[in-house]
Amino acid sequence: MRSGLAWGLSVVLAVVGSACSKKAEDVVVEPEPVLATPAVQGPAEYVGTPVCASCHEAEHQGWVGSHHDLAMQKATPETVLGDFNDVKAKYYKETVRFIRDDDAFAVEALGADGKLARFPVVYTFGVDPMQQYLVEVEPGRLQSFLFAWDTRPSGEGGQRWFHLQPDEYIEPGDPLHWTGPSYNWNYACADCHSTAVKKNYDRASKRYATEYFEINVGCEACHGPGSQHVDLEETKAKRRPSNTGFDRRLPPPEKRKWSFVEGGNIAVLATGQPSDETSTCAPCHSRRADLGGEGPGYHDRYRLAVLDELLYFDDGQIKDEVYVYGSFLQSRMHAAGVVCSDCHDGHSGNLRAEGNALCTRCHKAETYDVPEHHFHDPGTEGSLCTDCHMPQRTYMVIDDRADHRFGLPRPALAKQIGAPDACTGCHSEKSAQWAEGHIDKHFDKRVDDTFAEVLHAARMQRPEGEPGLVELVATGTAPAIVRATALLELRNLASPALPALLMRAAHDPSPIVRRTVAVASRDIAQEQRPEVVRELLRDPVRTVRIEAVAALLGIHAGRWSESDRAALKAATAEYIEARAFNVDRGEGLADLAHVALLAGDVEHAEGNLREALDIDPTFTAAYVNLADLYRSQQRDEEAEAVLREGLKAAADRAAVEFALGLTLIRLGRQPEATVHLRRAHEIRPEVIRFGYVYAVAQFDSGQQVASLKTLERMLQRYPANRDILRLLAGYNQQMGRTKAAERYAAELQKLGGSP
What we know:
By secondary structure, the chain is an alpha+beta fold.
């Protein structure tokens, strides 16, 4: 079977070729000197932490023993903190053993096949507040074991083994089992725990030969390869660029001067050098996808997750584990020019001051570190700035993480949108109204985070949601990650305003927004897409170009200019490169299958999807897409067989139930189909399409009254959904319920929809 970059490029070309008070811009930035730089031969190479330490002893000593230094270590008697003295731990009906044999360590547990086996522990991961262990399940493939050692003192509940999924039993074959893709070190962990990682996945053998330059997060993991820097130092060059031979600019904190202006309570960045610091920290401190490849910036390689409702609450607070960056991008501190090292020492990782002394370096203590501001006696719980502005959530059972959004407490709003609140989080016996009233007594004016109400209304499909999103995008004052999220929500609402907004947002200064333009444009009419997306093929940021290609797949480009076709060809090569980087994952293979199918290569598409199921039997999209491929070939019996396989193993059973229901309808088995459509709707009632199609199936099978009840329940949840209203109006009209039909039609007309 054909494979590789050359094939992928030819296929895609065949498809698309033929078919704060002071704004950041007000900061005085010290210009980079334009200097003659000594010639340095060849690309920069890694030299290793000992070479760096030979000149930078103080920085090295700060780093030794830090979380970066101890991010990953070989499992030895000196590095392993857990009790492996033939200790047993219970996990529901399972018993796990932790074993030591001289200087070697192992765990005895159920493997992917459900059989008890012994797995060698090869590496340790982290030190505080827990230590995890990497076990080898086959040569080169390492998995993160889901029992961890609590390294806290026993008086704090530590010095014990605990399971990271304690609330439900995860059995072998489940996508969340420790042997599954989610806990694969080679793909999911290695890049952030070591320096200069190369995944090295061989598709033919399905084996990894992953390499790293240094086992932990060394100097060059952040500063970049250091050979040119060393060469400049050794030549004693008197004239050199400000980045001194590195591929990124990381000026020391003393080059950034914060000062209070007259009458101001918050310091502003008075002078500073251009810095790549935040984007340097971001790859390992963000929820993102890795698209591989080379590029100078974060957004060239990584696809940052926006404020997805599974990851963040509607006001932007952390929900799932999002690793700081997406939260920080929402903050006024980021907008004012704050970078990570303003608060954290870049080498030790420690805070630059303890308690409120950290915050009062930039926020006047006489204004903010007083009971009149924080309402609590000094030194008591609630008097810390972080108690209210950086509330914590606990992940991995015992690891408390602070929200870096630096938001203002909004008790009433939090209750309205179902988000946590710092005030009632501590004062659990009090109401949100009590907390809101208490705040109102102290503060006359407060700036509202208006996007929270808008996002919440849009996700509940209330009438005010869509116009609120349009305004949020059009005004352009919200943080870029918020504007990008709003575009995706408008896509979900099928807003008629979306195409015009996408045209405008395609020129947004933020790559997050421009990338989202390409993603959202997939759901507008094909004839509109090139006008919106074509210029993004030339975008300076690689992930934007990649998403632009994804939006244009299957669209005829025969009448494009030579310049546009050249841009498409170059961006398509990057698209295929990104997909090929992740062929160890079902997602990458499913994307390549989609490309092949568009090119008419059914054999290659089927092979990719079968390969995806082979490496990850829980990957839902492969079952659904393979069944859809068979449908397109009038092979519905094979589609049914694939989906019935998926019911046993797929992570998202509702999606498989839904696809199976549609397949059975095509096979003329309506009653059986309705059963599966009902199951999909019951499992995932929040998915409008599942409920909509189930209601249609009910109506068509003679269950008209039941169909109306299904639709009415959905409308209670999503009162501004045009499709539900349109169907209710039509069905009531057919059943002779004229008044009800007119009522729904009137509601639809208010929303700008036609019957």
